[in-house]
Amino acid sequence: MKSERWNIIKNVLNDIRVEMTDEFDQNFEREAFFSQAWERRKGPINSDYKLLAGKKERLRKSIMSRTTENSITFYTTEPDAQYHNDGCEIVVTKRMKRFFWWKYHKAIEAFDRKEDGTVRRNKANTMLAGHSEFWKFMALKKAGTTIKIPRRRFLGTSPEVEKAVREIIERNITEYINLEFEIKEK
């Protein structure tokens, strides 16, 4: 009987792991934590630009799960994931300003240019212009001011998670009961 009970729990945990891993991954496509949309970007970068674009794949791939005998834990291996998942405020330092200027110069160096050195008017350069303006905007911030990183949850508990887990448990128990009933009828 204990091994049968363990088998049910093992199946439930495995189903939760598979389904919730997929749901947490889909948060990046939805740009939302289930039905709660992520706050859009403010500033010079186009608001249609994908959120967490540079970090998206790293954050997505860093989501893992750990299963014990009777529980499952989802976590991330990415060190700065908590800043995006929970939101935070970061104080600008002189070192950060140097980094922002470096990013700005890298962005403007990447512009596609004509033979005479003028910048071409194309889609890639339009996108780069937004990036360079963003880095310039950041570089011009005074040391000591704060940068607010809004909360963009992609991992954690929510009513949607609880509902999905409850449905998985109910489905597994129903399957187990139906299987037991079929065995007893034979």
Shape: elongated
Q: What would you report as the Rg, rounded to the nearest angstrom? A: 24 Å
Biggest β-sheet, characterized? 2 strands, antiparallel
Percent range of helical residues? 55-70%
Your description of this structure?
- With 186 residues, the protein is mainly alpha-helical.
- The strands form 3 sheets. The chain has a two-stranded antiparallel ribbon.
- Helix 4 runs antiparallel to helix 5.
- It is elongated and about 85 Å long.
- The mean pLDDT is 85.
Fill in the keyword field for this structure.
two-stranded antiparallel sheet; 56% helix; 186 residues; elongated; 6 strands; mainly alpha
Helix and strand layout, with pairings?
Blueprint: H1 2-30, E1 32-33, E2 36-37, H2 53-62, E3 63-67, E4 72-76, H3 81-86, E5 88-91, H4 94-109, H5 123-139, E6 146-149, H6 159-185
Antiparallel strand pairs: 1-2, 3-4, 5-6
